[in-house]
Design brief:
heterodimer; A: 175 residues; Rossmann fold; 5 helices; B: 651 residues; Pnp Oxidase, Chain A; FAD/NAD(P)-binding domain; 16 helices
Chain lengths: 175, 651
């Protein structure tokens, strides 16, 4: 995202990092919905969802401006479809490029869309430990949606249900 | 006789010109002349008188060509130099604008006139050279002042006399317009009002009467385009100052008539646009004379009341400050930029003192500050930029500026904004988060492609108001609370040379910009003590300045406006604030929405007043579009009396 593009005054409260190798994915839509819902509970500061595929990151996965946005946010949503039973390499590359303990004192939320029911645990088995390793607190259940559920409930339905289910855990998020 | 005539003529102040030409061998020659006179317009003739023994005169006789350069006030050295008989050496080291074998020109003048010799006549010890004009250039951009010659000394222009009071225009004799069948009153004679009047004149069937009400001396420039400070530039390049959507290049073409070199990417002086508005109104009036009656009133509209006319139609009575009442069928409020809103929690003693300037544009507030003073500006947006440029000029005070985030407007790029990939906006209704994300992503990927981040912002401009209206109220509120200031500094950018000027002030430590909050302001003897809490820095002691200027920018919330007209509309329930409380509530046509959610069919608002209902409503291209649509709307409402609007011919 190269630095100094946007004024340092721009700081979203909630940022979703989306690692779907396809642009404009359902993962992006779902993550945007969650980011939007959480941000409006936290105050006036904006939320953003970044589709990593649009950034054309290099192999190190490091981007100064995006990293700064992540470091300044309160809540980080890490979103990916399941790929080979785990989360996508695009997200992995970005997480690997973050500085050590980048998510310390932040709330992180694993979000995945799984093609098959047997991959539903990928968010908890693979993604959550990576976020914890970066220092994040992950107080809520992961948001895992099977493709069939997505088709039935749509992004909005899934977001509403998850926000309701997570509200008591999220009550601890500092406003 | 000689000395006495010289003294007598010395009382006749003149400008100074330098006559340039080339010798038969092509070398440039120049001589000073203050005897320049305009002789004839058709054919275009001018004359100068040159001493009989002048080399330059000999060269003009031989080649039949010369040029006249009108000197600016910083060029007295040129005048002295070329007045002497220095021979060919006179021009050594002088910078010239050369164009083949045409007579050379001096740069940085007020203008040039190239001539071919029309005739020569006997003038005693001088020769009268009459030239037929072949080429004219006029400096419209730099607005230099002329060098004058008075009582054998160089002088400068001190100022202009106020215009003679003009009686209310009566219909022009010989072209008596038809008896007016309908009247539209336009309240406010700045850009919004003038552009509305112009569109009405251009579009109406014969028989319309327009009454343009403006309290300032001049109709046209309004607040925004009145300033003649050289640092105050348009924030939009000349090629994009589209005042009339169906004639997008009218402004550029108008500028080029006097300054042919003007490029579409130039950021011109703001008052150039002010003079364009004056001219546009005059020429449109001249074109529609006999069909449309345009009247102006130099007065303030102080109250509006609605009277029932026959057949259930409304008739509006507008009371003016001079006691007159104007009756109209429709009224357009084009009140433009209002004063800034008050800063909450100000100490009343301080607020009432002359140490506090509540509105930088009122009463010459900016002229008072001098070099030994220091001034605190509250706000760091475009108003602050304007004010800092005035104050920070040579010998001005030290300027501090503070706002919550210390964000200053970004600069335009050095090149014409390119049309980059537009931000992909979904067709269906989307959330603020989605829009923010898409914009941010496009900005980032534009940068990755080596393109300008500005193009991402600019691509949203045509659809900004549609996107804004598609947001729900919660998102609109969120935007206004937090994102708007970020959006504002990126979207409403300043001209590159303005940014440069500001940067220079900062480098020289004449301007210091802080992010922080003001905890208190109080008088401290003859000065002002400001308790600042800055982000990340402890100022240690209060900041002590001589004056504090409110630069938070105009407000449009009618409840905070003090104009009697706005009070009158509010009191009658004809007007209410929009749902965000930042502008007038209007419908999509601009019709006022009253206290009872009733939409007026006779009172409309245009321009900045629509703030809140629209996000993008203060810049000329948007106002120009609104004026066009509003004119159509008003005229179609009057079509039963006026007949249908005129077919517009495409210019």
């Amino acid at each position: 995202m190269t630095d100094k593009l946007l004024h340092p005054g721009f700081q979203p409260n909630v940022i979703a990092i989306v690692g779907n190798p396809r642009r404009d994915s359902r993962t992006l839509r779902l993550a945007t919905g969650v980011a939007d819902g959480l941000a409006s509970q936290l105050g006036p500061a904006p939320a953003v969802a970044i589709d990593l595929i649009d950034l054309e990151l290099d192999r190190t996965g490091y981007d100064q401006a995006l990293t700064e946005l992540v470091l300044g946010a309160q809540v980080v949503i890490a979103a990916s479809p399941t790929v080979m039973g785990s989360y996508a390499g695009l997200l992995k590359i970005f997480l690997d490029g973050l500085p050590e303990a980048a998510l310390l004192d932040k709330t992180a939320i694993p979000l995945m869309i799984a093609r098959q029911a047997r991959h539903a645990l990928a968010a908890d088995v693979h993604l959550r430990p990576a976020l914890l390793e970066l220092g994040a607190t992950c107080p809520t259940p992961s948001l895992v949606a099977l493709e069939a559920e997505y088709a039935a409930l749509g992004s909005e339905g899934l977001v509403t249900a998850w926000l309701e289910r997570s509200s008591s855990w999220l009550a601890g998020v500092p406003a | 006789m000689g000395p006495r005539l010289r003294r007598a003529m010395g009382n006749f102040a003149t400008g100074i010109s330098v006559v340039t030409t080339r010798g038969e061998d092509g070398r440039p020659m120049a001589v000073t002349a203050n005897s320049l006179t305009s002789v004839s317009m058709n054919p275009p003739l001018v004359l100068v008188c040159l001493a009989r023994d002048s080399d330059t005169l000999a060269a003009i006789r031989a080649t039949g060509r010369f040029a006249i350069n009108i000197l600016a006030e910083h060029q007295s050295a040129h005048s002295t130099r070329f007045a002497s008989k220095g021979g060919p050496g006179k021009l050594a080291g002088v910078e010239l604008i050369e164009d083949g074998d045409l007579p050379p020109l001096l740069p940085e003048t007020l203008g040039h006139i190239r001539c071919e010799t029309h005739s020569l006549a006997d003038g005693g010890d001088h020769e009268i050279v009459v030239g037929e004009v072949t080429e004219i250039t006029i400096d419209e951009v730099e607005e230099r002042s002329p060098l004058l010659f008075y009582r054998s000394r160089y002088s400068r222009l001190h100022g202009h006399l106020p215009p003679e009071p003009i009686p209310d225009p009566s219909p022009i004799a010989g072209a008596a317009p038809p008896e007016p069948k309908a009247t539209i009153a336009v309240i406010g004679g700045g850009a919004s009002g003038v552009l509305t009047a112009v569109q009405l004149m251009r579009r109406s069937a014969p028989g319309l009467r327009i009454v343009l009400i403006e309290k300032a001396e001049e109709v046209g420039p309004g607040l925004a385009y009145r300033t003649d400070h050289k640092g105050h530039r348009l924030n939009v390049p000349a090629g994009q100052m589209i005042a009339m959507p169906d004639r997008p290049f009218d402004f550029l073409e108008w500028v080029r008539r006097s300054a042919p070199e003007t490029q579409p990417r130039e950021y011109l002086a703001r008052h150039t646009f002010g003079r364009y508005l004056v001219d546009l109104l005059e020429r449109t009036e001249a074109e529609s004379r006999g069909r449309i009656l345009l009247e102006t009133r130099r007065a303030e509209a102080v109250a509006v009341s609605i009277a029932e006319a026959e057949a259930g139609t409304e008739r509006i009575e507008i009371e003016l400050s001079n006691g007159e009442t104007v009756e109209a069928d429709k009224v357009v409020l084009a009140l433009g930029n209002a004063r800034p809103s008050d800063i909450p929690g100000l100490d009343p003693d301080f607020a009432a003192s002359d140490r506090y300037v509540a509105d930088p544009w009122l009463g010459g507030a900016l002229d008072r500050a001098t070099g030994d003073e220091s001034v605190l500006l509250i706000g760091t947006g475009l108003t602050m930029v304007d004010v800092a440029l005035v104050l920070g000029g040579v010998g001005g005070p030290t300027v501090y500026a503070v706002s919550r985030h210390g964000l200053m407007p970004r600069s335009h790029g050095d090149t014409m904004p390119t049309r980059g990939r537009p931000v992909a906006v979904p067709d269906e209704r989307c959330s603020l988060t989605e829009l923010t994300s898409r914009l941010l992503t496009e900005v980032a990927s534009a940068a990755a492609r080596g393109e300008d981040w500005r193009s991402a912002f600019d691509s949203l401009r045509p659809i900004t108001n549609d996107l804004w209206r598609s947001l729900d109220r919660r998102d609109q509120k969120r935007f206004m609370t937090d994102l708007n200031r970020i959006w504002g500094v990126h979207r409403h950018r300043m001209a590159p040379r303005v940014a440069l000027g500001l940067e220079r002030l900062k480098t020289n430590r004449r301007l210091r910009v802080y992010a922080g909050a003001i905890r208190g302001i109080e008088l401290s003897g003859a000065r002002v003590s400001v308790d600042l809490r800055l982000h990340g820095v402890d100022p240690g002691a209060p900041l002590v300045v001589d004056r504090v200027i409110n630069c938070t920018g105009p407000t449009y919330d009618p409840r905070h406006l003090e104009q009697p007209l706005v009070r009158s509309l509010l009191a009658q329930g004809l007007l209410r604030a929009d749902s965000l409380g930042i502008g007038f509530d209007v419908d999509l046509d601009g019709a006022l929405i009253g206290e009872e959610a009733d939409v007026s069919d006779s009172i409309y608002a245009i321009g900045p007043l629509r703030n809140g209902v629209l996000l993008e409503t203060t810049a000329v291209p948007e106002i120009g579009k609104q004026a066009e649509l509003l004119a159509e709307q008003l005229l179609s409402g009057l079509s039963s009396v006026l007949g249908s609007a005129r077919e517009m011919s495409v210019a």
